[in-house]
Amino acid sequence: HNEYCRCRPARVATATTQQHLHGRRVSVAASCSKSQRLASAAQPTETSDTEPLAAMFFFGAFAVLVPLAYLRPDLAATGGAIAPEFTVFWVDVMAIFFLEGLTLPATQMAAVLPRWSIHGAVQLFNLGLIPLLTCVAATKLGDTGYLDPIAVTGFLALGCMPCTTSMCVMLSGRSGGNAPLAALNAVFSNTFAVLWTPTLLGALTEVDPAMSRSRLALGLCCKMLLPQLAGQAAQKRLGAAWVTEHTPQIGLANQCCILLLLWQVISDVFMQSAGVTSTMLVHTILLVLALHYAFFGAAWWVGRRLALSPPDRVAYVFCATTKTVVLGVPMLKEVYGDRGAAESAMLMLPLVTYHLLELVNGLVLSGRLRGWVSAAADGSIRSLPLSV
To answer: What is the DSSP letter of 272?
Structure first.
């Protein structure tokens, strides 16, 4: 009995210690599980095997459309055979935003919604810093005679545009970035730009005096917000599994719609080719190159200063530096509705050039960026040089 009493405290202490350790293991496991759930939205999106083929299709089709627009600009130009005022600027644009809404990852977007600091950083760079820097550069070059007044207005319009939607998500996922974060910020940017961009253009340039901001906002909502909401409703109706299974087909349809929009803009340029000189075209391309790579490098540096994780940093760079042609072209048609067909075509040239360059640049860098994200996740590297 005495020996039992002497041993009992030791057994009780041992049992208490085991219970305490078990409690700690449960607590740590629960904490890890919670961290994994919170971090799941930031996991890099797997690259689809069809993405290289989709990129090849886009550029191959674009290479066919350019000579077609040159030989027969009357087909898709304003007032042309396909009636682009309705088929392109209404039906086609609404179809693009519907398809984008159909594929937006709503659940994963909700998971990254509370991260307001990075959302604010993206919008401030894309809709604040870029318009300011573009305004300074275009105005200075216009004063020196490097750009004519129409080109200056075109670059100011380029700077004020929001980021892309489908391109941001595609390039971020292809590069190992946080695709839901990119999708959410693209929606924020396009929604905010419905009111912000026309106001900013009115302050920086001479817009159509007959333009009604309320009518413009209503029209853009009908073309963008309502189709996106309809796409989200269709996603819930069809199911996420169906959308995932048919993602390549949806992406192909989206690319075809974007190609139709670009065909119309290029046809307008060729139809009014008398106003486009070779000097103006070369100056536009060179300035677009300089601006895009300057913005890309600056955004990469800002992402490093903000200490963003590699997936978040990749998404930040693409959201902060891309500019949409899908929302931009219809908006420019409305804002500068009093301009002639020749001026309207010239106004869109910087935006279309920038859109193509950002796509090419993103596809070229995606492999290296994805390798950097993977290496950073393994702990083999800490940072990527700015010369990425």
So the answer is: T
Distances (CA, A) of 93 to 13, 227, 251, 353: 72, 9, 15, 19
Buried b (16+ CB within 10 A) or exposed e, 30-44: eeeeeeeeeeebbeb
pLDDT digits (tens, 9 = 90+) for 219-252: 899 999 999 999 999 999 999 899 999 999 999 9
The pTM is what? 0.84
Q: What's the DSSP call for residue 306?
A: T
Query: CA angle, corner 312, sides to 310 and 317, nearest 5?
Result: 95
Q: What amino acid is encoded at 85 in this protein?
A: E
314 is written with which tokens?
């990749």
Burial 337-369 (b: 16+ CB within 10 A, else e): eebeebbbbbbbbbbbbbbbbbbebbbebbeeb
Nearest to 348 by CA among 60, 356, 299: 356
Task: Using only the alpha carbons of the chain, give its radius of gyration.
Answer: 25
